[in-house]
Fold these 4 entries.
Entry 1:
Amino acid sequence: MTFMKKHPFLIVDYDSSVKLLASEERQLKKWLSFASLVVEELLKKKIIPSKSIKSIQVSLLICGEQRMRKLNHEFREKNKVTDVLSFPSHEDLRKMNSTDTNLFLGDLAICHQKVKSQAKQFGISYMDEFIHLFFHGLIHLFGYDHELSKKEEEIMQGWEKTALDKFSQIKKGAR
């Protein structure tokens, strides 16, 4: 298990059950530290109604297809591999005005092989697809679900676009 705290706001406790290349691991740590700045921006834009949050914690599992299929079957009754699963620790943060200063959002699982195949399919890097799935899962942890309705899907896509645009700005500035 790797504990990462590159930025004091977003704490990502992650574990990988697949072997990552050393370069992938380095870039993953760097990009997750950038993600902290994005999450702060999302909170400023009111992704959830809270003014008191000082830090957010997320557990992240990077796993293989077999493990992802098992998780998807066990928790969603879908016997197939998916790219990202979210397990929120709160029913819906949008409906509660959290007074927690340190908020545990929940758990994410991202399938390593799906990231690789989708990155190739979309003509982007592994890390670009990984961070997209990370934000997608994170937005689910905040209480959004594109499977509920078209309106909810549009709201979630808006937050994803906001997150990815901000991430892109941060990434460009760090070069």
Entry 2:
Amino acid sequence: MIRIKQLTRRFGRTIAVNSLDLTIGKGGIFGFLGPNGAGKTTTIRMMVGLLAPSEGTILFGEDGRALDIRVDSLAARRQLGYVPDAPFLYEKLTGREHLRFVGELYKVPRRPLEAEIDAFIDLFNLRSVADQPIEGYSHGMRQKVVMSAALLHRPEYLIVDEPMVGLDPRAARIVKDLFVRLARERGTTLFISTHSLDLAEEICDRIGIISSGRLVAVGNKEELRETSRKRDSRLEEIFLALTEEETSDMEVG
């Protein structure tokens, strides 16, 4: 379970995230949508401990043993897998060496680590380049390595910022299926920020829409239709209606 309570982040006089409240149950796939500059990446950076909130709390786990990312940072991060919007890779290493390095940072035992690395190399069709330096990889290949690295230690929570960037349709299908399998079979809780409305509509159990730092709607697709008064509409129409309303309210205010 992930619980976000009154999460706020200010940059000077600018409020990037404003009193965000969210609860994501264990094994859920939560889609986090919003226009550019809405506060999605700022929220994620606070969730993974890269940015300190101005106010509020972020808790991982059930009542009684939940970890606060600010108080129990190291213990919480051990349970997290993170795919950032602008990943960093050690380009002089091969893909296999990079994955081995990340796995060792998480103290994954050597034999299971090698098995996990081989499994991801096969899953993402990286066998032909796995032992070549990353500096020669395409953007899509790099994204596959980053995704694999985030999952080597079998995290309880996977937090992803724009997972499909650079992936071809076949690789994107593999990632979608992987996300669903992680949630259904392992009970992994996924928090996915994306501009891909098709991705959110296809795999997410619940969706939150943020605009100008404020959560304007949250729920499953039917609940979002009710909120937006767009019955029988696709997610694109719902998203546009809700974010346009928020923008109009701000302009009036």
Entry 3:
Amino acid sequence: MSAPNPFSGIATRWLGRISYDEGLAEQEKLVAARDGDAILFLEHEPVYTMGRRRDQSSLRDPKSLPHPVFETNRGGEATYHGPGQLVGYFIIDLAKRHKDLHIHLRAIEDLLIETSRNAGVQASRREELTGVWIQQRKIASIGVGVRKWVTMHGFAINVTQESLAPFSYITPCGIQGVEMTCLENEGASETPESFAQRIASHIKSPV
């Protein structure tokens, strides 16, 4: 018998395609309101993001990047967000749950792994590497921020081939030689919105 899903019943919303600024503003509004937990699903306009850290070498040459760079308040190194990729933002009060960020990260990984398998893609973890993988290929990145135990940010899973090319300009998540993949390349016929609906169904929450 499988363990209960820790995100079961949390309200979800599909925001469509929005800018990174708009997504961050919506998160900030929900964190400030503290009016219950929520998961936001969306696509972003093309943007590279970087966690707040002194070493920004994973951006390689920022002046050569085809899309803007946004320094943000999540953990982790450089990644890309854009069309063909589903982003999920988790606004969750961990003070009412377990006060453990590592448990939260593993729960997000589990959610993506189970939903990918439901779509016919055998995803898994890799030891000591946060994210979701198909063997040695990375399909989803995870980075979170937390403020007074209320989480922000979450995951980005590559759904269609459109999401992949911009990763070639950076060192994704600072992992040298990593190969990025997407659900389409792994045999699943999905859109970001349809995969969001799969996740919502998995946690029994309507989009």
Entry 4:
Amino acid sequence: MRSRAAESRPIRRVELDAGAEVDRGAWWATIPAVRAVLDHGLNIPAGVTFLVGENGSGKSTLVEALAAAHGLNPEGGSRGAMHSTRVTESPLGQALRVIRTPGRRANAYFLRAETTHGLYTYLESLPGDNPDLNLHEQSHGEGFLELLERKFRGYGFYLMDEPEAPLSFTSTLGLLSRLGDLRADGAQVVVATHSPLLTALPGATILELGAHGIRRTEWADLDIVASWRGFLASPEAFLRHLGV
């Protein structure tokens, strides 16, 4: 029997739109994880899902595409966010069809660590009683966490790209706790990350991207967890190998 959370999650699946024309020879379409989505689609689980993998495995490409397909600004923000610096995203988002759960309105937001400066500037420019005027006055991490608290609320579909980038160890633990709270509120969250700390969230789904495409895995089996364990146990061995 399916759980109530699985039945009520905002987004059930993304797949290639039947009318989309895709250049399968384009750089982004040749990434194994992206090719897997184009060929087979991707079911989005309820709760929190982490996308993990090496640089170039397609984590950011996929999470940006999920944002664009859902109607969010791929540089961060909500559906109505009108800001852009330089368009670097692939056209994957325009080629995907989103299968939603009908009958309930869902909030949505995308936070992308590398483009938060532009997002802050846009938010500060909005007229009226603006709660976002102080974002540039805080550290990168403080502003990121405050924006997360303001915009990620209740039932909805939320996306993050490498949110650990501006955060200390303690702040990352705070983010992990916040992800647990969002899940308890019925939110569906997809996070692209390199963090072994975030991916330790109990009950989360971990999707590993790589040459194999996309596969579900467990935290203890992640290469990044094994690498960090080895480094922390014997940093001198790693450094000696690097000639440092």
